[in-house]
Write a structure and sequence with these properties.
Number of strands: 13
Shape: globular
Oligomer: single chain
Strand order of the largest sheet: 1-2-3-6-7-8-9
Structural class: alpha/beta
Order of helices and strands: HEHHHHEHEHEEHEHEHEHEHHEEHEEHHH
Radius of gyration: 21 Å
Helix content: 25-40%
Distance between the termini: 24 Å
Number of helices: 17
Largest sheet: 7 strands, parallel
């Protein structure tokens, strides 16, 4: 659903209905910094940060970033260091605390289940993000956009207080070279770390082969799967085989892309269905297929509790009411190389003119790819950065065509857009599943918005 869309407000609201609420774990350090610099309306993040087990770390972050009454209009947000193989101490603490705070707030005031969703493609912040979420007692970890075989074992290590490491994919690495990201709880605390609850792990998969690989070759226990189809929002798995495009430029999915649910069920692990399952009757259909339940995104993305800017939600609902919704599966927008579902909306980066007018830059770096330099050191590049910079770092110019700054676009969708040095404000990039066309169905007569509880009630009814 995008950065911050399924934030703690939404996850908590869903958990209070007796279902599992899931917070998006991407870019939480940036969200924390920008919310504090915006004055932290309601004081929620300050309360959560203050609950962190190290008061000194918590207070240092509040001292560094909190702005009473918020920053001045048009003043740029402070930037943090970009993720890399070697985190600075400040960025490490900020990442751990931000993930702790998000899960802490999601779990506050109820005894329901809370999960956190991370992307395998964004490897560098993964370990400190997991540790921060585990410090707050997260119940589930969900991960896709790759093959997250190492995550179950990392969860085992972190729960015991042992050091964990992840192999990092470095473009151009030599056969005998191995690059890793590591996190040592003992070093983080400078003392004996606490033992933590090991959250359950759900792999987000789109194929039978990937589910089988995770079940048989993961580094630790896999507790189930989310089976995600190509109509789901956000990043989609590419079609199997060579990329075929429709006349309007969208990837073509066929029978080869449909997972064999009987074979997945034979693995003996529970699974949930995702991708256009946010409709009445589809839960019953999923249960009949052997699923434990469904994962629903798009209907929740436009409810009152979601993190999308309220004006964007109102526009999306009006488009749905008028039958004007168009979700385009863009094969090149994301720097990850995965197709990305983008909601066509005026005033956003979905419009070609807005994309062309934006000055290319990479100042957040979550989707940068590490690459091996000629001297054996590691550099970082993103197809969304200035073309000359990308080519200078060894990238191919054709890989930059159509690439959008997903990082800045998704944060702008939350209403915390950066004001750049040239005075321009970053525009939103709204991601949604195909069911964005149907979100008006969740409106009660006379109402202009709906809640997370309304979504759950309609799906169960």
């Amino acid at each position: 659903m995008g950065v911050g869309v399924s934030g703690w407000h939404l996850a908590q609201a869903v958990a209070r209905t007796g279902n599992m609420g899931v917070v998006a774990g991407t870019a939480l350090s940036t969200i924390l910094v920008r919310t504090l610099q915006s004055g932290d309306p309601g004081g929620h993040l300050r309360r959560a940060v203050s609950a962190f087990p190290s008061p000194d770390m918590a207070q240092a972050i509040l001292n560094r970033y909190f702005v009473e009454d918020g920053r001045s209009k048009g003043e740029p947000f402070s930037l943090t260091a970009l993720p890399s193989l070697t985190f600075s101490r400040k960025l490490l603490e900020l990442t751990v605390v931000a993930n702790f705070a998000e899960v802490f707030l999601a779990k506050e005031g109820h005894d329901g289940l809370i999960g956190i969703n991370l992307l395998e493609k964004i490897q560098l912040p993964t370990l400190p993000s997991l540790y921060g979420a585990m410090l707050a007692g997260v119940d589930y970890v969900l991960m896709g956009a790759g093959i997250p075989r190492a995550i179950p074992g990392a969860l085992d290590c972190l729960a015991r207080g042992d050091a964990a490491e992840l192999k990092i994919d470095v473009l151009g690495a030599l056969p005998d070279e191995r690059f890793v990201s590591s996190f040592d709880p003992s070093d983080f605390w400078k003392a004996t770390p606490p033992e933590l609850k090991r959250p359950k792990f759900l792999g987000i998969v789109s194929s039978t082969a990937l589910a089988t690989t995770l079940a048989n070759k993961a580094s630790g226990r896999v507790d189930g799967f989310i089976i995600e189809g190509p109509t789901a929002g956000g990043h989609n798995a590419p079609p199997r085989g060579s990329m075929q495009l429709t006349d309007d430029g969208q990837p073509v999915y066929g029978t080869r892309d449909a997972p064999d649910l009987d074979k997945i069920g034979a693995l003996g692990l529970p699974f949930w269905m995702a991708g256009s399952y946010g409709r009445p009757g589809r839960l019953k259909e999923a249960l009949a297929l052997g699923a434990t339940g469904v994962q629903v995104g798009t209907p929740f993305a436009f409810c009152e509790e979601s993190g999308i800017d309220p004006d964007i939600k109102r526009k999306a609902l009006r488009m749905s009411q008028r039958g004007e919704t168009l979700v385009f599966t863009d094969p090149v927008a994301s720097p990850t190389g995965f197709p990305l579902k983008v909601l066509k909306m005026e005033g956003t980066l979905s419009e070609d003119a807005n994309y062309r007018e934006r000055s290319r830059l990479c100042d957040l770096g979550y989707l940068r790819s590490p690459y091996r330099k000629l001297d054996g050191s590691v550099g970082y590049r993103c197809p969304g950065e200035p073309v000359e910079d990308y080519v200078r770092k060894g990238g191919k110019p054709e890989d930059t065509v159509g690439r959008k700054c997903v990082c800045n676009g998704l944060l702008a969708t939350m209403g915390i857009a950066q004001t750049q040095k040239d005075g321009t404000t970053e525009l939103p990039l709204v991601t949604a599943g195909d069911d964005a066309a149907r979100i008006a169905e969740f409106l009660s007569p006379g109402n202009e918005s709906y809640t997370a509880a309304d979504v759950v009630a309609r799906l169960l009814r």
